[in-house]
Amino acid sequence: MCSNCYNGCTDITSDQCVRYTGIDIPILGIKNGDSLSYVEQALITFLVSTLDGTGIKPTIPSEIICTLVQSFLPTCEDITEVDLFKSLIQATCSLQTQITTEKNRIDVIEADYTLDCVTGVSTGDGTHAVLQAVIVKLCSVSTDLAALALNVSTNYVALADLNSLIAAFLASIAPSDNYSNRMIPFTAVEYYGSLGNFDGSGAGLGLFANIYLCNGNNGTPDKRGRIPVGAIAGVSGGALDPAVNPASSTFNPNYAVGDTIYGTNSVTLNTTQIPSHLHAITDVQHNHLTVYDNGAPTGQTGVAPSNSQPILRTNDSGTTIAYSIQGPISGTPNICITSSSYTGINTTNNTGGGLAHDNKQPSLACYYIMYIP
User: Fold this and answer.
1) What are the two backbone dihedrals, phi and then psi, of residue 131, each rounded to the nearest 5 degrees?
2) Is the pLDDT assigned to residue 289 strictly greater than 70?
């Protein structure tokens, strides 16, 4: 033995006084001069950490560790073998969970499909086949929609664009001063202007183009000398008033459009059309006169008439009648009123001229014109 093994150590316990004289071992924490006891403890600690893995710290480049494993490793400490094994186990379990989840999703995706309008596949076909059939169907629908869109864009316009399109159309056509632009087609209206705006048939000239006199020519109604009346035949609506209903009276015509057969400017009444009445007859009372040559008989008053002094009598109607002697008489003539009586007349002469009466109402004559496109 060497003489200085204890180096003056007062404790003669060998592992406390014996010193390590070898090279330093940093990985074990051993340095030259450490006591044997310390070296033994360092070796034991290292062996234990080796057995449980806490002392094994492999050097693994970080770039080869995938993100999943890295997420389970410590971030601020040295990575031990235990940390590495734990991270691998946890990453594997996480993958298993993801695989199970995805499998469940795939199982749902790969379940039988309700195909509805999709053709070319069956309900049990896989997702790829069904998806391909759906793509084919969508392409077919897209083609149909494109054709429909072309048809709509060609034949229809959006309501929001209607006003601007009308304005653009009106702006694109040449402006016209024709009076027909201010008229409703096929509507007869009053006109008080000159007939010089129309030709002999009634067709309009110049600015009156497509406007016609309503004279029965050019497809117009003949309104000369006629007033309008609302048509009845074929016109829908509520119940007709009895004053115009053809079913209420034979005098109510069933007017149809264009009828010109009703009405007259004068009417002649016959005996069946005038009220029942009676003509009163006055039977005029008259006197019977007797002429006596030589004075009046006893009890009667005689008068000697002459042309200058006639006998005056008033009849029942208040008329004064003068009586005189006509022809030669002898002696002293006297006229006496001997009696009064009635003739018994009971008829009179016919009266009336049988002429028609005016049947026109107050009117204002005008021309009628019509715009026919």
Assistant:
1) -65, -40
2) no
pLDDT at 1: 39
- Whether 253 contacts 262, CB under 8 Å: yes
- Determine the Cα–Cα distance for residues 183 and 189; give it in Å rounded to an integer: 9
- What pTM was estimated for this model as a whole? 0.40
Higher pLDDT: 135 or 280? It is: 135
Left (φ > 0), alpha (ψ -120 to 50) or beta: where does 318 sit?
A: left
Would you say 31 and 56 are in contact if contact means Cβ atoms under 8 Å apart? Answer: no
Write the CB contacts of 368 (distance below 8 Å, at least 6 apart in sequence): 188, 189, 190, 191, 213, 214, 223
Evaluate whether 346 touches 281 at the Cβ level (below 8 Å): yes
Partnered with residue 335 across adjacent β-strands are: 291, 303
* Positive or negative: CA dihedral 179, 184, 188, 190: negative
User: CB count, 10 Å around CB of 214?
Assistant: 20
Q: What's the alpha-carbon Rg for the chain, to the nearest Å? A: 71
Q: Give the alpha-carbon dihedral of 113, 118, 119, 124, to 10 degrees.
A: -10
Mean pLDDT, range 104-122, rounded to an integer: 80
Any idea where the domains of the chain sit in the sequence?
A: 14-52, 110-173, 179-213, 286-341
Q: In whole angstroms, what is the distance from residue 145 CA to residue 63 CA?
A: 53
DSSP state of 210: T
- Mean pLDDT, residues 328-351 taken together: 56
DSSP class of residue 295 equals S
Residue 132, helix vs strand vs coil: helix
What distance in Å separates the CA atoms of residue 232 and residue 254, rounded to the nearest whole number? 6
Give dist(CA 345, CA 285) in Å, integer: 11
Do 53 and 82 form a contact (C-beta atoms < 8 A)? yes
